[in-house]
Amino acid sequence: MKAVYAVVFMVFFSGISLLGQEHPENEAQDKTHLVGDITRLQLEADELFCLYHKKQYKNYTPESAKLDPGKLADFDIKVVLGTWCHDSQVQVPRFLKIMDETGYKKEMSFIAVDTDKNAPGNLIDNLDIIRVPTFIFYKDDLEAGRIIESPEETLERDIAAIVNQN
């Protein structure tokens, strides 16, 4: 009986001593998120993000917004996202479907941030990123507008508001 108490005692205190330690499986999980300057292909191929991307992209039906493809073509777009972020997992695939359906042909810039909303180097230093995703529209190398985290109305209407006012 004393042996049973001794084993329980040792297991209990060894468990307490592990509470403050880092767990390698958690670190490995954190490292699975994309971080840095990425391409759309990398994003869509990401093991975790692609699950959300396929579902959201397939199931989302963009409203017929008054997006003029000719005006939209005047803009460059930078997307700052977190592959770990629920809003990014929902909004980015929807945004991409809207861009595809409107025939947007320019290469978009994608920057993936970590859970602290940091990216390597100075990729986002001057972008004032507080929440993700952030969709930034540039016209003639000047910021024309942005959609932060979730649209105010709908993605289509918010995009149209930025494009039509510039």
Could you give the topology of this structure?
Elements: H1 2-18, H2 24-30, E1 36-38, H3 40-45, H4 49-59, H5 69-72, E2 75-81, H6 86-102, E3 109-112, E4 134-139, E5 142-148, H7 155-165
Parallel strand pairs: 2-3
Antiparallel strand pairs: 1-3, 2-4, 4-5
Q: What is the topology, as strand order, of the major beta sheet?
A: 1-3-2-4-5
Helix content: 40-55%
Unreliable stretches: 4-30
- N-to-C series of helices and strands: HHEHHHEHEEEH
Number of strands: 5
Q: Gyration radius, to the nearest Å?
A: 22 Å
Structural class: alpha+beta
Shape: globular
Number of helices: 7
Strand residue percentage: 15-25%
Head-to-tail CA distance between termini: 80 Å
In short:
This protein has 166 residues and is an alpha+beta fold.
Key words describing this protein structure:
7 helices, five-stranded mixed beta sheet, alpha+beta, single chain, 166 residues
What does this protein look like?
This protein has helices at 2-18, 24-30, 40-45, 49-59, 69-72, 86-102, 155-165, and strands spanning 36-38, 75-81, 109-112, 134-139, 142-148. It has 166 residues and is α+β, with helices and mostly antiparallel strands. A 5-stranded mixed sheet has the order 1-3-2-4-5. α4 (49-59) crosses α6 (86-102). The longest helix is centred in the first third of the chain and has 17 residues, at 2-18.
